[in-house]
Design a protein that fits this description.
The complex is a heterodimer. By secondary structure, chain A is mainly alpha-helical. Chain A contains 6 helices and 2 strands, in the order αααααββα. Chain A has a two-stranded antiparallel ribbon. Chain A is globular, with a radius of gyration of 13 Å. Helices cover 27% and strands 21% of the residues of chain B. In chain B, α4 crosses α14. The longest helix of chain B has 20 residues. Classes of the chains: A mainly alpha, B alpha/beta. Chains A and B meet through α1, α5 and β2 of A and α11, α12 and β18 of B.
Chain lengths: 119, 532
Amino acid sequence: MSRDPIISRRAFCAAAPLLAVRLQPGRAALSASLAALVGDPAAWRAVGRRRLAMHPEETRRATLLAALADGYPAGAPLAARRAWFVARCRDDFAAGRVERVEGWVMARTELRLAALLAL
Amino acid sequence: MLLEAQSLPEGQVLAGDVVIVGGGPAGIAAGLALARAGRKVVLLEAGGLAVDAAAQELYAGENVGVPYFDLDITRLRMLGGSTNHWGNQVSDFEPIDFARRDWIPHSGWPIDRAALQPWYERAFPFLDLGTWDLDRPALWQAPAGPFRLPDLAGRRIATKLFRRRAEALRVGEHHRDALVAEPRLALWLQASVTEIVLDPGGRAVVALRGVTAAGRRFTATGAQYVLACGGLENPRLLLASDAVQAGGIGNGRGLVGRFFMDHLRIESGILLPTDPAALAAYADSFDRPVDRFANLYLTPAAQRENGTAVFRLKFFSRMEGETSLGYRGVRGFLADLKGGRPLDGFGTQLARMIVDLDGMATGLYAGVAGRRELLCVSVVEQAPNPDSRVTLSAERDALGMRRIRLDWRLSDLDRHSFERGRAVAAAELAAAGLGRARLDDAPEVAAWSGIAAGASASPTGAFEAGHHHTGTTRMADDPSAGVVDRDGRVFGVDNLFVAGSSTFPTLGSANPTLTIVALALRLADHLARLAA
């Protein structure tokens, strides 16, 4: 493990959608709808800050929203949005769209969401 | 018959139809099969029925490459050979293991997987595993079997099935009564072969010269000769027998001893399982009295797509956080304290605790709460490498034989197979919803990653080899690519054959013993046919 871990196990588990994501009801606006998916914003923001530092080309809110919005059922019920998010992360894993943050293998979609929340 | 060579007078000649050197799994399997086929067999075992320090010392040698196990520790000179200390994990090789893989230089066997099936099936009862069942995953699955195997259809990882006896089989002990009872087989203990004698033209073996533990010389003669003394000793004997062929028997192309390989076993991270029960088949194979378990491995398509050799993954349950730097610091400090030396490593342990407070806290909490995580252990197939080799040193053992000088080398391809393999496996486990992985850049792994650049690493601990000495008399269809042909015959010598993992052109996707026995049984059938 790195010498100075920023992402604790607790934070990772809270941020990893396939394990322990806490999803909440959506809102009208896209960013609010996305932000509402997570139940532990502090943990997500910790991951997001690291991701922002790793990818300076993806530090603008508009860029991240555009990347996340493709196919996102913003107005759908929570269950549908949850399914979409989990499926998209799994697609990322299967397609190799993964990145390592302090050793944790994470899907690009979940990292973009984390980055959005950290802005 | 079981006989003690120590009782032989000086200059005794031991005669048979087939002379086999080595009483390990290959020699015993081939010897019994040949005797039962009506051939008179002389089986020469250099050791006795138990481990003996003086016999082991004859195996001592020099490691000059990547640090490896001491050569008198990594094998046993006694009846049953290294099955007296093996891990007892049995599985077959996959079709891709035999194929020519464009992305793996020097890969490809002259035989395919299907050709070995009849002998795999006979090797199973030889290893006391009953009827062949590696093609019946239902036996691993609940309700008939002990596990619930996950559905990995369409994934880049798949399940590889293994058998393991709850009590490890000692092949020599297990077959001892059969060896004693077999009238056409003479098993000589304490009979070390030191030289293969060729006719003046170098086309055939006329005798083997040896010496007993009592120091008396003997000769063994037959129509056919089989070397079955392991991946280090087979090339040693060929290289040492250089009276007629300069450089050793079968070494006209300089290939004897080259391509030494071993599996790499690396603790490489942790997995937080979504449902531990879904991965139970892949976990803790050593810790439970199970006779069936499984590994995950990269599918052939994924190996091709990612340019890797075989990559396997298995798990060992740990307390959550147990593998973290911080928690190891706590454990190290407590161990030092318990051992009455609290200050010895205190600086190191304290540093670990300070830099990984999270890990330390998680480990301590999990110990109370009983939470578990899975330690990921990667097993990597080392790719064939001609520079990784066995030669002979100038130093001689007590019998006058030159000792082994092992120059084990790892390559960038090996590092790639490890790094890419674990990354793909981690992503696929997440895609399948089975768990989330953290791939550690632990100091041990970093040290291994530096090996190709010449750094050193310990062969024990988080990174180690598998004691699978392989490739040093490799099988090929052309003498420019190997030492023995598809039937195990040494190129250029009509009646000299080699059995064992030294003939493997590549390491394969499983531990070698089942394939060693299968190939030995196949060789026995071949020799019996030749005699007929």
